[in-house]
Amino acid sequence: MDWFVVTSALALAAMYGLLGIGISLTWSSIGMLNLAHGFTFAAAGYGAWWASKNLMSAPTSGTDALIVALAGILTGVVGGLVVGLVAFLPLHDRPNFPIRSLIATLAISLAGTQIFLLTFGPLNKPLPKIFDPVGKALDMRKFEIGPIEMTWDRAGSIVAATLLCVLVLVWVRMSRRGIQMRAMMQNPEGAALVGVSVRSTGMMVMGICGGMAGLAAVLLSSTFFVNPAAGVQPLAKGLVIALLGGLGSVPGAVIAAILVGFTEALTAKYFGTTTTLFAQYVLVFLVLAVRPRGIGGLLDEVRA
Question: Greatest CA separation found in the chain?
């Protein structure tokens, strides 16, 4: 077994899962397909880059890495709330909210790209690998578990992304706000009738999903860099995972993230990186042809 491919797939699945789960949570709770998720991703990348330039020492220490990660997550939260303020709060009680919000989030994404271009310029901004022990010899940046050899950066990415996903899912299951969000997922009108605030709960969902996109930006941008269009490909990956898993199904999104991660890792190894996105769209087509609602799609929409 090629363990390098397996570990690469798991790392990609963990990071892409943050994006796919965020899109699914937003859709299932407030009925909005957030095309500005890529804008939030790019904003978080720039926030982490600013922190790496102004708040970090050299070489990178554990505290510095934590600062960069927190800066990316917090910027992602702010980005999610900005999207909510523009595309959710003014529109959620209007007719045809799904279509209106789709157009609004697309506009935010396009405008955000131009704002980033004017503010930061077109050049790529590098981020440090926050789990990479800088200053150590190359062999000190790896460890082995039996036959598996893995870099500390890849292992840290898997653990951090998985831990945040688990924390969010536990919050959804156990907390009062999480129960309110699940009530909105099942019946928005019924939740509003029993006193659940759609506005405040929806904004909380936007902030949480923005934070998940922020961590994904920190983990992915250390490899793919930060630029004004950095959110386009992650948005495509997140949409692929959300559609493949079934919009609104978090378990389906988790399974879809694993499938997409392995598809990308295997395709990149045997056919080159230029074919990975095509292979993922083929995977979506094949799954939806057999199961139109996705891997774990909801049986019926109950929205008016």
Answer: 61
